[in-house]
Structures are given as structure tokens and as C-alpha cells.
Amino acid sequence: MAGADGRVLFELAGAEPRRFSPFCWRARFALAHKGLEAKLEPVRFCDKGKLAASGQTLVPVLVDGARIVHDSFAIACYLATPIRTVRRCSAALPRVGSRSSSIAGGISRSARI
Predict the structure, then answer these.
(1) In the chain, where are the structural domains located?
(2) CATH level 3 topology of 4-80
(3) What gap in Å lies between CA 30 and CA 19, rounded to an integer?
């Protein structure tokens, strides 16, 4: 069932094999950016049972060996860490006072509103 190196990406699929979720696209882009492969497992609206092991009802969900990561942003952060440990992505943002931190801070503040 697992793809290369035991990775499986569960993503939303409709009646046709077309994948239309932009959140799942983000997870695919993150995998492609890192040059990693995964088995792509379609999940239709009525197939939520496929996600039971993850404890989630929403996609995307990445199963990487024994580790389960959900949410496209969390998947991108997980894939970005060299030792594949999940940590808060905000720790990777520039420190306060740097020129780019004001831009990143403005984006994160506006996203919370």
C-alpha cells in the first residue's frame, strides 16, 4: 500500500479521477519540491473510513512510515525539516526586528483575522 519509502498521500477525489482540492495540491507541490515520491491514495467524500487510522476527517493526510501528518501546511513543514521531526513552523520564521519579519508578521496577523 505504501509508496516510495513508505509514504502515502491521501487526497480528495471526485467521481472522476481528477483531484480538485488546492490543499492537496499544496501537499503534492511540497513532495515534488523536495524530490520525494508517495503513493497517491484517492479519498472520495463517502470514503472517510480510509482516514480512520489518522484520526482525521479532512485531507490531505500524509502517512510517512509510522508518522501521520495532516493539513497541507503541516505537511510542507514536516517535509522541510531535514530529520523529519514535526515542529511549529512559526519557529522557522525570521526573528522579530529583521526586515522580512515585519512582512511575515503582517501576513500571519492578517491571516488570523
Answers:
(1) 4-80
(2) Glutaredoxin (3.40.30)
(3) 16
Distances 4 to 1, 46, 61 between C-alpha atoms, Å: 10, 27, 16
Cell output for 101: 519579519
Cβ neighbour number for residue 104 with a 10 Å cutoff: 15
Q: How far apart are CA 16 and CA 13, in angstroms?
A: 7
Taking a C-beta distance cutoff of 8 angstroms, is the pair 40, 11 a contact? yes
Alpha carbons 66 and 56: distance in angstroms, whole number:
16
Nearest to 75 by CA among 84, 85, 62, 66: 62
This model's pTM is above 0.85: no
Which residues of the chain are modeled with pLDDT < 50?
Answer: 1, 85-86, 97-113
